[in-house]
Design a protein that fits this description.
Layout lengths: L9 E4 L4 E4 L7 E6 L10 H19 L3 E6 L17 H9 L3 H18 L15 H13 L3 E4 L2 E4 L1 H7 L10 H7 L15 E6 L15 E3 L1 H13 L3 E7 L3 H15 L5 E7 L2 E3 L2 E2 L10 H6 L11 H9 L7 E3 L1 H20 L13 H13 L4 H19 L7 H18 L6 H26 L3 H13 L2 E6 L2 E6 L1
Parallel strand pairs: 3-4, 3-9, 9-10, 11-13
Antiparallel strand pairs: 1-2, 5-6, 6-7, 7-8, 11-12, 14-15
Helix pairs in contact: 2-3, 4-7, 7-8, 10-11, 11-13, 12-13, 12-14, 15-16
Bound molecules: adenosine monophosphate and zinc ion (ZN).
Length: 493
């Protein structure tokens, strides 16, 4: 029997503001859409947190035996500066700055995104569609919205008519905002604006002659609005109504609100059964953000090259740190917090390694079955990873007591404990044992430093045959030495 038939899951639905029983539309199957990155710069650790939260959710669904179709898009056009309807496309702007093609920008940062997520041990989604690959689908949805009377065309652009929509539907149901208040709080439209109302949003924008990212449409050359992409891609791969839509809290309004409006205005159905929002990662108490520069990149944490942290931390420790917070809570990154996570992580990995070697007895002092259900209960309660981790540490205590001969464990309980610990740590939390790879890389660095020392001695003795041999043979092994003012540094491929 699949685990999901025994484990009753509850999720916090942002649409209702309540924890609800999770019942998928089709039994045993889950359709999940998560807004992906806009690939115009390197992903920062805040972005990674959101994707890691949904990776953990994806992993738990799979662990429970659901067949999951997980769609996470790549936004490679249409996302304008300040998330607004005016201004430059973020990708085109970067392309101009770097004097390369927009698609080179897209390629570069998509590759970085994939490499980074792989370092943090995220599973690839089932489908990773791009906005530029779905222009036709977007145009079709706009046609439907116009036909249904909820959009208007002005001078080659198409706008969603929020006021008209709100007469028969509710705009603001996800964010809890009221259209009247929004209207009361906005300034008058600027004289040159084409919109009937400041709350209206672009479905299609006319491309000015200098705009490079453009496609033909029934309304002339242009490009799609950012909100529309997600509606087109989620509908195409998951249907008009699907189980879960996720993203960072900051996307709730206007992005996700607009997605709901677009679906209701085109096919007449609300698109999503459960809206899940992951909370922000902060640095020094402020939201990490690409635009403000208050951020840290994963590579800076792993290499230790930053001004914020006292030492490097491995990707597994960073992932463990993220999992120690509930996905709906704000999490602040600090050196103290990472150091504490590193200690906990090492304690957990050590217990996991000791576990198979523990002696067994005829009886057990530890009720492993009951403990195992507590782990599920934590995850079934809206993916409560901090409680799960505290249960894992309860097991660590018991493992250490058995190791010290102070408690007993039966063979069957030991096997169940091995399976459960490894399932939750590796399969669900996605935490790998990098404790030894950290040791190994420290040893490797030490060996290279030693060889650099020997090479310096050889050079001082004018024994250039030896010094060149060390450099060339290290090079052949993928270790490049670089001689500089402050001595010799190295990189390992
Ligand atoms: P973007 O590439 O800016 O569209 O962002 C990609 C994802 O990262 C979105 O789901 C955002 O909500 C999320 N995100 C952005 N900043 C943060 C942050 N500081 N903490 C957590 N998630 C974030
Ligand atoms: Zn989206």
């Amino acid at each position: 029997m699949q685990l999901y038939k025994k484990q009753k899951l509850k999720v916090h639905n942002s649409l209702t503001g309540k924890k609800e029983d999770f019942v998928p539309i089709n039994e045993g199957h889950i359709g999940m859409y998560v807004c992906g990155p806009t690939v115009y710069s390197f992903v920062h650790l805040g972005n990674c947190r959101t994707f890691m939260s949904f990776d953990m959710i994806f992993r738990y669904f799979k662990h429970l035996g659901f067949k999951v179709r997980y769609v996470r898009n790549i936004t490679d056009a249409g996302h304008l500066e300040n998330d607004a309807d005016e201004g430059e496309d973020k990708i085109a702007k970067k392309a101009k700055l770097e004097q390369i093609e927009p698609m080179e920008v897209v390629q570069r940062y998509t590759v970085d995104f994939h490499n980074t997520l792989q370092q943090f041990n995220l599973l690839p989604p089932s489908i990773e569609p791009t906005a530029t690959g779905h222009i036709i689908e977007q145009i079709e949805i706009i046609k439907e919205i116009i036909e249904n009377g909820f959009a208007y065309v002005v001078n080659g652009s198409v706008y969603f008519d929020v006021v008209k929509f709100n007469e028969s539907h509710t705009y603001g149901k996800l964010s809890g905002r009221k259209l009247e208040d929004m209207i009361a709080n906005t300034r008058e439209l600027t004289a040159q604006s084409e919109k009937r109302n400041p709350q209206d949003f672009a479905l299609w924008k006319k491309a000015e002659p200098q705009h490079i990212m453009r496609w033909p449409s029934p309304w002339g050359d242009g490009f799609p609005g950012w909100h529309l992409e997600c509606t087109a891609m989620s509908t195409k791969y998951l249907g008009e109504t699907f189980d879960i839509h996720g993203g960072g809290m900051d996307l709730k309004f206007p992005h996700h609100e607009c997605e709901i409006a677009q679906s209701e205005a085109s096919c007449g159905k609300s698109p999503v059964k459960y809206w899940l929002h992951a909370n922000m990662l902060t640095l020094n108490g402020k939201k990490m953000s690409k635009s403000t520069g208050n951020n840290i990149y994963p590579s800076e944490i792993i290499s230790g090259e930053n001004n914020i942290l006292s030492k490097p931390y491995s990707a597994a420790v960073v992932r463990f740190f993220m999992m120690q917070a509930h996905y709906t809570s704000i999490l602040d990154l600090s050196d103290d917090a990472l150091q504490a996570s590193e200690k906990g992580y090492l304690r957990l990995m050590e217990a996991l390694e000791n576990l198979p070697k523990l002696p067994t007895s005829a009886t057990s002092d530890f009720d492993v079955q009951a403990w195992r259900q507590k782990c599920y209960d934590a995850m079934n309660d809206d993916f409560n990873t901090p409680i799960l981790i505290s249960n894992l540490f309860d097991a660590v205590k018991r493992i250490n007591l058995v190791k010290e001969g102070k408690e007993t464990l039966s063979e069957a309980d030991k096997n169940l404990l091995v399976d459960t610990m490894s399932a939750f740590i590796h399969d669900v939390l996605g935490i790998e044992n990098q404790a030894h790879s950290d040791d190994n890389s420290q040893t490797l660095n030490g060996i290279v430093e030693l060889l650099i020392g020997l090479r310096n001695e050889a050079r001082a003795n004018k024994d250039f045959a030896t010094s060149d041999k060390i450099r060339d043979e290290l090079n052949a092994l993928g270790v490049q030495l670089k001689d500089g003012k402050d001595g010799t540094s190295f990189t390992i491929n």
